[in-house]
Amino acid sequence: MASWAALLLSSLATASDRPERVISLDLCSDWLLAHYAEPSQILALSPLSASYKGPIDTTSYALHDGSLEQLISLNPDLIVVGQYNAWLLRERLTALGYPVKILTLPQTLAAVDEQNSTLLSWLSPEQPYEAQYQPAPPLSEDAPLLLKLGSNGIATGLDTFENQLLEQIGFRNYSDHSGYAAIDLEGVIASPPDRLLIAAPQSPALANLVFDHPIWKQLLKPQQIYSSDDWRWQCPGPWTFKLIEELRAWR
Known about the structure:
The protein is of the alpha/beta class.
């Protein structure tokens, strides 16, 4: 009888740990929250969700206006925010005693699993997380060279999160510089990559004119070029592993 009572008390304690009025303060946290939380748990997402299309349709959720006054009036029992976002707002909310949880921006694929697992433990303590990351075998010397290009002709180089994704998929990075740098078109013409991956917003913009340059059609066949929304690279989450699967199929 005592063991049944202990089990009941444990279940009640777990249930009480589950937040029911959750708010997010930035776009990436909006999407992660919409993915992992039950709809009934989400009190409001950030106003940025109204302006950007992402991995999940968030149009059915209420949005807050980002003001301290409104957030206090909503009386959330959990506030989720990314590591580098809403500094002043989250500090003031913390000072007022509101439960603010900070998601660390993943720098590795293993850390994406850690981020997802952490958020799920906040939202549903009783629900286990199934890890998705599996280390890839070492790259072969003849693995195809891929140039990842973003808006304004910015190429992704080594020592970046994106480079880890490319190696996980089975590509060598065409750009041998560290971090991010403007593309050298003359160098590309002299020694072209095996693949081109375009990661930029799909909306028309002057920053995307580089992708319309006729040189790409001269250097590469259509099947050697892949276009992807930039949000898939900027907000690591469960969709990161789906992107890896898609690019492996394209490879």
